[in-house]
Structure formats: structure tokens, C-alpha cells
Amino acid sequence: MAVSSGVVARYRAVRERVDAACRQAGRDPSEVELLPVSKTKPVELVRELHAAGVRTFGENKVQEAVAKHQQTADLPDLRWSVIGHLQTNKARDVARVAAEFQALDSVKVAAALERRLQAEGRGLDVYLQVNSSGEESKFGLPPEEVPALARELAAFSSLRVVGLMTLAAPSPEEAVVRACFERVRAVQQVLRDDDRAAGSYDRLSMGMSGDYELAIACGSTCVRVGTAIFGERPPQNDYAHYWPEGPSTS
């Protein structure tokens, strides 16, 4: 008999906390997706969660998403969400294996994805990444620049714009983190009122292992949780090859 890794129990515990946070905020738990982020973790844990009913997983690195996509080819209903910064030379891989991309922040990347998606004959759900904390180390657009990108995306028929994504400031002060989420909510309202903006903005991908309950209170519809589900990862320097393109998003 196989020994359980505990990943399913941890996932269910996080889901219970997500549901409780929804009820506390007066929201229906079905409104909030729990996206397990499996970066640097073995594909066997993904298989355990899939067997328990989980169907969508997040990956920061394109090459890791591709590898795990190949390793789970026998699970055709498993979906991959690429949530990390994308270089244009990886657009082909995202167009081929991803069900969604959560970190779109430039016309250049949009154009590269559009070309590859057209060649693949498929579309892709995308979120626009907002740098809500103003940190230079983070990718994403400043809030005031997001509407201009949203308008330009109307020219890309293969990109289905579905919402906004952000990483809040890594602060122990709730007010600082809340302000990040509220800035994204403000951008969401601007885009909903802008009839030139491409797509729809019902989805907000906000919140990670340390702040997802606050994100839910602020309107998040997708929380990206890695450590609380899959366990601690080694120090970043121990796997620096995973991070040539930017910071963590879970």
C-alpha cells in the first residue's frame, strides 16, 4: 500500500480555510478557485491531487510546465496555468501546453503569444499582471498603465482577456497588503467602464500562501497557493536555475 505524502490533506485544509474566508466575507465559496502551485515539486504530487479531483495546477517556469505536461500526458483533463513572467522565446511552449497565462504585461509578449496561438489553432485565457506594490523587483504594469495595454489587446483575437493578477507587497502589515489588493480592484473597475478594453475583468488572481484570506476579503477569485499545499521548498539559492526570469508568484 502506497504511503500518502499528505498533499491531499493539506490541499483540503487550505480549501476549508478558503471556504471559511469566503463565508466571512459574505461570498459564495464557489466564486474562488484554489490554484495549487507545484513549482519545484515532483509530478507524483500532482498525480495525487489529480486523483483527488484537482484539475488545474500552476507553474512559474515554462520549462517546468512543459515537462510536467509531458509527464501527465495520460491525464487529458489536467490543465496548466503559467503564472510567472514570460520571455518571448518561450511563447511557443505556453501556446502549446497552457490553458491560461496569468502574467501578461506587454504588447510584445501578447504579439508573440498571438503568433504561436494562431499557428496552434487555439486560444488562451490571459490575466494582465499589475504591479500593485510599486516594487522595482516585480514584473507587471503600474496600475495607471494597465488600461492602455487592455485597449491594445483588442487586436489579438487568440487572447481571451479574463482578468487581472497581482502579487501584494511582502509586508507583515495588513494595511499595506490590503492597499495592493484595493489598487487592483480600482483598476478592475476602470477597465469594466472602458468599452475599448479587450475582454472581461470578472476574475482577480490575488493572494498566495501568506495572504490569501485577506485577498478573498478584497474580492479575489483565484488564490495561488504553493507552500501551504506542497510543503516548504529549499532556499532559493539551492535551485537558482528555476528563477532566471523573475520572482515567485505563489
Automatic annotation (TrEMBL):
Q: N6-(pyridoxal phosphate)lysine modification sites? A: 39
Gene3D superfamilies xrefs: Alanine racemase
Which keywords belong to this entry?
Pyridoxal phosphate
Pfam families membership: Ala_racemase_N
Q: Which residues form the signal peptide?
A: none
InterPro entries membership:
Ala_racemase_N (IPR001608), PLP-binding_barrel (IPR029066), PyrdxlP_homeostasis (IPR011078)
Q: Does the keyword ATP-binding apply?
A: no
Tell me the cofactors it needs: pyridoxal 5'-phosphate
Task: Write one Gene Ontology MF term.
Answer: pyridoxal phosphate binding
The record places domain Alanine racemase N-terminal at: 13-234
Please give the function described in this protein's UniProt entry: Pyridoxal 5'-phosphate (PLP)-binding protein, which is involved in PLP homeostasis.
Q: Which family does it belong to?
A: Belongs to the pyridoxal phosphate-binding protein YggS/PROSC family.
Database matches in NCBIfam families: YggS family pyridoxal phosphate-dependent enzyme
Q: What is this protein called?
A: Pyridoxal phosphate homeostasis protein
Q: Which organism is it from?
A: Auraticoccus cholistanensis
